[in-house]
Design brief:
This protein is α/β, with parallel strands linked by helices. It is built from 26 helices and 20 strands. It has four domains: 197 residues, HAD superfamily/HAD-like (Rossmann fold, 3-Layer(aba) Sandwich), CATH 3.40.50; 70 residues, Trehalose-6-phosphate phosphatase related protein, domain 2 (Alpha-Beta Plaits, 2-Layer Sandwich); 165 residues, no CATH class; 42 residues, no CATH class. Helix 8 packs antiparallel against helix 9. The structure holds the ligand O=P(O)(O)OC[C@H]1O[C@H](O[C@H]2O[C@H](CO)[C@@H](O)[C@H](O)[C@H]2O)[C@H](O)[C@@H](O)[C@@H]1O.
């Protein structure tokens, strides 16, 4: 609740007694719903370490490191309220990396704004972008969801797949006729006919596609076909004893896979040795794959330029090319977009990497196609926060306005009518992202160590405001969460009224503390019952039991908004309240959890803050900055 005005911003409610006591806590002390999810602080940081390589020339080229890092192990995430909650130490490194390469999904609005009145041209890599990285390249199958997402994009924007695979192979895997295809890292492009292009560029010929439609075929490495064929056979022969090695012929280049090869047998030296016989071929690196390519000056970046030209989009300012890719060979395309100062590269990576991309996507296709393409981006934002349906905006659209309405409603409805769910963060940059994703305000937590330092809190809030200002977040979208007492919790109506009189806008309860307490204590029958049902005691307190308990306006226990700007301003503290203005008296009515948490106080929070700082000093600045 905005305690200074009458509008309906985040609310502190102090509902009148409700018809069920909850978890042994007196119901008339029930405060407003807790804020939304918060980010975990993570644990230790591991910065990938370089291990010495086996082979000197491999080591001197930095190749062994490249090979090791070329396909990091998959990480596990817990989706909590659709936030990705850190489960291991590398998450902090990832979040700090994301400050430089923000999530494309979260930046949808920004990209969409920039794309207004521009023609988007979409370029997509295949492996690791549209299909998951799997052990067997033959099994890198694109999901149906992803296929329809790509089809949808192609409906609106010219779309091309630019892959390291042969063009035929990638077409076979994608199977969409409405796209343009470039195989062999862009050395085999089938694009739209464009007379100017085919006339001016050598190696560009007219051809027909699978449907018999006239197309331009550009194959700048044509003369290398016999050489690639020969080297392919040699590679197959020389690696046949290496268990797990696999060689692919992509017509204009060849790949030697070692994903399934024991590290001690990685074929790098063998491939190097073969290539000494082929000075016109070179070696590049992909994800656990060595790519043998002609030395010609052609790559995915050049392919993007060629396709833009073929599409007639090369010379206009109103074009926004977007390239999404996961691999080192995609960097050539990201670089071209950067150099043209046009469009965006989006890197798909679950680990921090140095890149020429502008944005990032964490985990593209694994887990059922999380990658959203622009056609879908808008709608995906709507489901970002599970708790959003509780917000007053949505509530308003259901016609609910206050507890004085006729007809039954749940207690959660009643509390919601006075309140708003506010997503919570401790990081300004994260707050900046949240502001783009949710309506209303975003709350930022002030360091718990300042709980004992009033002036420190004020200074901190001013400095946070300044940081938000720098990323263009206006103060009216913000809340600052400050420790309300030296134990950082509200316990009673009188305490809430005092905070309101002191100028607080919102009061929040720490659901998590009740949960923490309940995890290590039992004996309270209601808590035990909640735990037995496998529910969260903190959420039960604030949300679940509210939503289960129905109440009608004329019932004895219907909700009344007792705390409002007016009632708070007018509240006269009783002598008793003033006399017992100590933590214990304030906490007593809240039951055993409150008493116990009183002892723990702020220490836990302070400890966590120290730990996060310690971890950040290890990774900041991140190694790739
Ligand atoms: O440019 P792309 O479309 O990303 O193609 C690059 C290479 O992708 C394939 O290999 C990669 O994906 C395989 C399947 O997930 C995986 O097993 C392999 O380890 C990855 O390197 C493809 O097989 C290569 O030929 C492409 O060059």
């Amino acid at each position: 609740m905005d305690m200074k005005s009458n509008n309906s911003s985040p609310v502190l409610t102090d509902p009148a007694p409700i018809n069920k006591s909850r978890l042994g806590i007196r119901s008339n002390l029930l405060p407003c719903p807790q804020s939304g999810a918060s980010f975990s602080s993570g644990k230790n940081i591991t910065i990938p370490r370089k291990k010495p390589g086996k082979l000197d020339d491999v080591r001197s080229n930095g190749w062994l490191d490249a090979m090791k890092s070329s396909s990091p192990p998959r990480k596990k995430f817990i989706k909590d309220f659709n936030f990705e909650v850190a489960t291991d130490e590398t998450d902090i490194a990832y979040f700090s990396w994301m400050l430089k390469y923000p999530s494309a999904l979260n930046s949808f609005e920004q990209i969409a704004n920039f794309a207004k009145n521009k023609k988007i041209a979409m370029f997509l890599d295949y492996d690791g972008t549209l299909s998951p990285i799997v052990d067997d390249p033959e099994q890198a199958i694109m999901s149906d969801d992803m296929r329809s997402a790509v089809r949808n994009v192609a409906k609106y924007f010219p779309t091309a797949i630019i892959s390291g695979r042969s063009r035929d192979k990638v077409y076979e895997l994608v199977g969409l006729t409405e796209l343009h295809y470039a195989g062999s890292h862009g050395m085999d492009i089938m694009g739209p006919t464009n007379k100017a292009v085919s006339k001016d560029i050598a190696n560009c010929i007219k051809s027909t596609d699978q449907q018999g439609k006239e197309v331009n075929l550009f194959q700048p490495a044509r003369e290398f076909i016999p050489m690639i064929d020969e080297v392919f056979r040699t590679l197959v022969e020389n690696t046949k004893e290496i268990k797990g090695a696999k060689v692919e012929n992509h017509k204009f280049c060849a790949s030697v896979h070692y994903r399934n090869v024991d590290e001690k047998n990685w074929p790098t030296q063998c491939v190097h040795d073969i290539l000494t016989q082929y000075p016109r071929l070179r070696l590049t690196h992909g994800r656990k794959v060595l790519e043998v390519r002609p030395v010609i000056d052609w790559n995915k970046g050049k392919a993007v330029e060629f396709l833009l030209e073929s599409l007639g989009l090369s010379n206009s300012d109103d074009v926004l090319p977007i390239f999404i890719g996961d691999d080192r060979t995609d960097e050539d395309a990201f670089k071209v977009l950067r150099e043209r100062n046009q469009g965006y590269g989006i890197l798909v990576s679950s680990v921090p990497k140095e890149t020429n991309a502008f944005y990032s996507l964490r985990d593209p296709v694994e887990n059922g196609g999380n990658l959203r393409l622009p056609g879908e981006w808008g709608s995906s934002n709507a489901v970002f926060f599970k708790f959003q349906p509780f917000s007053p905006q949505i509530r308003a659209s259901t016609g609910f306005s206050s507890s004085l309405d006729t007809g039954p409603s749940t207690e959660l409805d009643a509390v919601s009518s006075f309140s708003e769910i506010v997503p919570d963060t401790a990081l300004v940059n994260v707050g900046g992202d949240l502001v783009k994703l949710v309506p209303g305000r975003v709350s930022t937590e002030v360091d718990a160590r300042l709980a004992y330092d009033t002036h420190g809190i004020i200074r901190k809030v001013h400095s946070l405001l300044k940081l938000y200002d720098e990323i263009n977040v206006p103060p009216e979208r913000l809340l600052f969460k400050i420790p309300s007492t030296w134990q950082s919790m509200y316990w009673s109506f009188a305490q809430a009224a005092a905070a309101a009189q002191a100028g607080a806008s919102v009061i929040q309860i720490f659901v998590g503390r009740i949960r923490d307490w309940a995890r290590s204590h039992s004996g309270d029958p209601e808590i035990d019952a909640v735990l037995k049902r496998g529910e969260d005691p903190g959420l039960s307190l604030v949300l679940q039991s509210l939503s289960e308990s129905t109440t009608t306006p004329d019932e004895k226990y219907s909700f009344v908004q007792r705390l409002s700007p007016q009632s708070a301003a007018a509240y006269n503290f009783s002598e008793d309240e003033v006399a017992k203005w100590d933590q214990l008296s304030l906490a007593l009515p809240m039951g055993p959890a409150a008493i116990d948490r009183l002892a723990a106080g702020l220490d836990g929070l302070i400890d966590q803050a120290r730990r996060v700082e310690e971890l950040f000093t290890k990774i900041w600045p991140p190694p790739n900055v």
